[in-house]
Design brief:
Mean pLDDT: 96
Low-confidence stretches: none
Shape: globular
Radius of gyration: 24 Å
Strand content: 5-15%
Structural class: alpha/beta
Number of strands: 11
Length: 503
């Protein structure tokens, strides 16, 4: 997919002397114009980062050395970009932007999904007013983000999300549901995910105990392995397949988005896809210095490679986007949390930072003390929306936006004081993403931006963002520990914990 850049390619970036942020504004009179972009209803502002003209030039050279253009074209052409698993990454095809054959197949599967939604709305499943969506990781985080952000005022179907295997999570998920009028959506790429299948079995038992005659008849399976769903007991007419080339954390555009389309309506789902497609076209066609995902990756890599920042904070100044930070945690850290390059050699440099964050203004009274005066330098990203939710007090929303903008200004300028305890050093970087409004189209573009930013980071580092073998080891060990004979081979501490817990 790419050629990992060598140390010579990185040296101009790693050794670049960074000016203070306030000095950059004085030195570059056109800085604001150069460091802001408007794409797909989103205003991007990187002017408060340490990127300067020379650094952007060095990053463009790095992109050329890494074969970025060829890697991007390979992604959109449906070529093998997941080299360790020998697969393409076909999430862009779900938005109509990939290889023609993959695009056509995705369209067929979307049509199948719509037909099932039409059948539900027509009463083919009897009375239905809710969905219990069972998945984990990307099979849950994407739908949860979208329904929470866009479905709060929907009067269509209630969607309850269940991912954790903790029994308390199950009880909370079904507490608001009537088993007689609920459908179960079982979302698992392989349809072998232990946590998901255990929760589906619990949901079947919940329905049976409530007197539902045919619980299996109320299951809709979303999977890239339809045969496994059939063997589980789901009728093939209620199976919504998606491609093996669509990774879980990139899957909300596929049949995994079924509860989104059901809760918001098909028109909203189509607008979501079109917003993402608009960002796809921008990413594919814009030149590097005006390419939003690529510029964001330049800033990310500046802080990990030059300043050795180990974390990146994302703060949503809109309650409707409260699920964005956990969604990005999986997207960025599962994709780029790697220590070897695409050719299997040690990476030899920092990869993805730890992504974390929260919601403003709550976070201002919890973690921002460290961000302003602590010893850690943490690049921050503020995400806000110009138009508030309908019915919201306009003055509340005005104050919310002012707080978001004030944090970026305070981080950059700091505060001088004769009392060291009251002094803020300033020169702390932040970027701002300001959405015109929060609707399906703009949110689709925002999520696609983050996907392409993650991909850009991976290409420039020379790593594969589409596998996640590190997720498997702990799950394998958990299964082994369930066998008293197998657990004998594990360390004394682990065996002692098992014995103490009585499991």
């Amino acid at each position: 997919m790419t050629r990992p850049p060598n140390s010579r390619d990185w040296k101009p970036i790693e050794t670049h002397k960074l000016a203070r942020l306030d000095e950059l504004f004085h030195a570059e009179p056109d800085r604001l114009a150069r460091m802001t972009l408007d794409v797909a209803g989103i205003h991007f502002d990187w002017s408060k980062t340490h990127l300067d003209v020379a650094l952007i030039g060095h990053f463009v050279e790095l992109a050329e050395a890494s074969g970025f253009v060829a890697a991007r074209e390979a992604l959109f052409a449906g070529e093998i970009v997941n080299v360790t698993e020998g697969r393409p990454a076909e999430h862009v095809a779900e938005r109509g932007q990939g290889a023609p054959q993959a695009v056509a197949l995705a369209a067929e599967r979307h049509a199948r999904m719509r037909s099932l939604i039409d059948a539900i709305e027509a009463g083919a499943f009897g009375e239905v007013d809710a969905v219990l969506h069972v998945g984990i990781g990307g099979s849950a985080l994407g739908p949860d983000l979208l329904v929470d952000a866009l479905g709060r005022d929907s009067d269509r179907y209630l969607v309850s999300m269940l991912s954790n295997i903790d029994g308390q999570a199950f009880d909370e998920a079904v507490e608001v549901l009537d088993p007689a009028t609920t459908l179960i959506v079982a979302a698992s790429k392989t349809f072998t995910t232990y946590e998901t299948l255990a929760n589906v079995h619990a949901a079947i038992e919940w329905m049976s105990e409530a007197g539902v005659e045919d619980p299996y008849g109320r299951i809709i399976a979303v999977t890239a392995n339809p045969q496994a769903a059939v063997e589980f007991g789901v009728d093939e007419t209620r199976i919504l397949p998606f491609s093996e080339g669509v990774g879980g954390r990139y899957s909300l555009w596929s049949s995994v988005g079924f509860p989104v389309a059901l809760a918001l309506g098909w028109t909203a789902f189509e607008e979501l896809l079109e917003g993402a497609a608009e960002m796809d076209r921008h990413f594919r066609l814009a030149e590097p210095r005006a390419n939003a995902p690529l510029l964001a990756a330049f800033a990310d890599l500046l802080y990990t490679q030059n300043m050795r920042c180990e974390t990146r904070g994302v703060f949503a100044y809109d309650e409707r986007l409260r699920m964005l930070p956990p969604y990005l945690q999986q997207l960025e850290m599962e994709s780029n949390g790697k220590s070897v390059t695409v050719d299997g050699k040690p990476l030899g440099r920092p990869s993805a930072p730890v992504t974390w964050g929260g919601v403003g203004t709550d976070a201002q009274h919890a973690v921002f003390q460290l961000l302003h005066q602590g010893t850690h330098i943490v690049p921050l990203e503020f995400v806000a929306v110009i138009a508030g939710d309908d019915g919201q007090d306009p003055e509340h929303h005005r104050q919310l936006l002012l707080n978001a903008f004030a944090q970026g200004a305070a981080l950059m300028t700091g505060h001088q004081s004769d009392d060291p305890a009251r002094a803020d050093p300033g020169n702390r970087p932040s970027s701002t993403l300001l959405l015109d409004r929060l609707d399906p189209r703009t949110l689709g573009a925002l999520i696609a931006f983050y996907e392409h930013r993650t991909f850009s980071n991976a290409v420039l580092l020379g790593i594969n963002p589409f596998d996640q073998f590190g997720v498997e080891l702990g799950k394998q060990i958990a299964r082994a520990l369930g066998d008293p004979e197998s657990r004998k081979g594990f360390d004394e501490s682990t065996r002692a914990l098992i014995e103490r817990a009585g499991v």
